[in-house]
Design goal:
Collagenase (Catalytic Domain); about 220 residues; about 25% strand; alpha/beta; 3 helices
């Protein structure tokens, strides 16, 4: 396996946000499923979990640990995803203070999730990524901040720069609302992509997600003790 791996870390996920204001939803085909399903509480049955940032949330505030060149990789990832949208539905900015950040990006492998559960993808040798989503048991709230992890497993590997770059794009894709992995290896949101940028299918999926009513609402938690 030559491409980096992605591990989407999820708490109990659920979705409720706003669609895109007055702009009509674009017609899109050839998509993949970006939402997740989780056992409903109380059961039986499954809940469909989805999320996107609303216009009032923009720009999404992203704090990045200054290690392994991650600020540069994540700044480039923000530019890539912003350009994927027709109507600036997603915008983000790097901030210098982690307090109040909507997304926190850390170098290194994640420890056990404090809340919720973690969905792992396959592993690759060069570098790995993970995204932690903390969702309440009723599948109504996505509790901030979202935590993203990017780790270099082989820092001296000649392909590490490319690996970290596409890992950053992939994990930011999860943080902006593409919770599931694409089944197509030609998409950046495939579990172990070997492409450097989002495909046309990734872009169509992201746009559709942002023009579909979500089931999760972003709320900010008090700091953990």
């Amino acid at each position: 396996m030559t491409a980096p791996s992605r591990r989407l870390v999820l708490g109990c996920v659920a979705v409720t946000a706003l669609a895109c204001g007055d702009i009509a939803a674009p017609s899109r085909s050839d998509l993949y499923e970006w939402r997740l399903q989780a056992p409903s509480v109380p059961g039986p049955g499954l809940d469909t979990l989805s999320f996107h940032w609303g216009q009032d949330d923009l720009p999404v505030r992203v704090w990045v640990e200054d290690a392994e060149g991650l600020p540069g990789y994540m700044a480039a990832a923000i530019d890539v995803w912003e350009s994927a949208f027709l109507y600036r539905e997603f915008q983000a900015t790097l901030v210098t203070d982690s307090a109040g950040a909507d997304v926190i990006v850390l170098a290194g492998a994640p420890a056990s999730a404090v809340r919720g559960r973690r969905l792992h993808s396959a592993l690759a040798p060069e570098c790995t990524g993970a995204t932690d989503l903390d969702v309440d048991v009723e599948h109504r709230q996505l509790r901030l901040p979202i935590r993203v992890f990017v780790a270099s497993s082989l820092p001296d590997d000649p392909g590490i720069d490319r690996c970290l770059a596409l890992t950053s794009i992939h994990e930011l894709g999860h943080a902006l609302g593409i919770f599931a992995h694409s089944p197509n290896p030609e998409d950046i949101m495939f579990a172990d992509p070997d492409v450097a940028l989002p495909s046309a299918r990734d872009q169509r999926t992201a746009e559709t997600a942002y023009h579909t009513l979500p089931t999760l609402e972003a709320v900010r938690l008090e700091p953990l003790e």
